[in-house]
Backbone:
């Protein structure tokens, strides 16, 4: 029988091994993945040489636990969780391997950590949930579609952040003179029902929450909103580049570059419990004028002037 210290030595990597767990497909994860790798390079690492990254992807929430278990079996030194569902899956599998959140909606309210300043346990990293962002999206859609009094919210309640976003959206809606009509979308079949409700409820605009499933259906959602001449606001620039009207939210590339700093600190001996969770500092507004023209909408000059990127 091999002595315990020899077995432990077999499980110790000569260079750091990082597990990267995502609920999105590889192509949709490309930007943030690249930003994370860039952050590591800026810290002096050579990806594949002085640091190794094991990537796992699945939009299926149930499968995330299996993928997290794979990473644990590989004895990775840190798990980078690209979102709340991956972070939750990793936490269910291990309470010893450090977990760094690349982006995560309210990790305190969802029970991942004790507090932002003192996370405790084995999880720390980046939080992207801010009430101001949720409020601003609704304000923007109201500014470009001032007659919209009923606004649909496309969401997936299986994503723990979506009910939190709905609560914040509903809280600010009365001050803007709008009624929020939630539409649950968990699978492709839900889209026909949701857009049927949009027609029936005389919806004037649509807000789409951040969720891997909703992102996977972006082509269908964009097709319907364009056909119905519905203004829409999305959580990330990629949707506007694909044909959405507007996006306002966190600059996720910046979050993942900063997440690399957490990984660096942990592989050099810092404890996740001692590293305060950080919030976003960079936000972006992206507008697609081509889509605005397609749906017969004129973007007010004051809104257009605030856009960091305009697609013509």
Residues:
């Amino acid at each position: 029988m091999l002595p315990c210290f020899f077995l432990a030595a077999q499980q110790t990597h000569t260079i750091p091994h990082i597990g990267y767990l995502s609920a999105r497909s590889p192509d949709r994860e490309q930007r943030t993945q690249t930003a994370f790798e860039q952050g590591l390079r800026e810290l002096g690492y050579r990806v594949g040489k002085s640091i190794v990254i094991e990537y796992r992807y699945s939009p299926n929430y149930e499968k995330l636990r299996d993928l997290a278990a794979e990473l644990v079996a590989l004895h990775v030194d840190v798990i980078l969780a690209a979102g709340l569902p991956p972070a939750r899956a990793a936490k269910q599998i291990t309470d010893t391997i450090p977990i760094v959140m690349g982006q995560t909606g309210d990790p305190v309210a969802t029970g991942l950590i004790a507090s932002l300043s003192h996370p405790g346990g084995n999880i720390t990293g980046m939080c992207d949930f801010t009430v101001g962002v949720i409020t601003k999206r609704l304000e923007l859609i109201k500014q470009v579609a001032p007659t919209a009094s009923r606004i649909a919210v496309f969401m997936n309640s299986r994503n723990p952040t979506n009910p939190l976003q709905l609560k914040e959206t509903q809280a600010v809606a009365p001050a803007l003179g709008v009624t929020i009509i939630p539409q649950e979308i968990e699978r492709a079949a839900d889209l026909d029902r949701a857009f049927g409700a949009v027609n029936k409820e005389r919806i004037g605009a649509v807000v789409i929450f951040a969720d891997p499933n909703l992102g996977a259906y972006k082509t269908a959602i964009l097709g319907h909103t364009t056909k119905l001449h519905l203004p829409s606001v999305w959580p990330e620039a990629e949707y506007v580049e694909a044909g959405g009207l507007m996006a306002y939210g966190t600059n996720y590339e910046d979050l993942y570059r900063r997440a690399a700093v957490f990984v660096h600190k942990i592989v050099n001996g810092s404890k996740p419990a001692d590293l305060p969770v950080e919030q976003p500092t960079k936000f972006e507004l992206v507008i697609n004028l081509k889509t605005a023209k397609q749906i017969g909408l004129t973007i007010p000059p004051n809104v257009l002037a605030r856009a960091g990127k305009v697609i013509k």
About this structure: The longest strand covers residues 17-22.
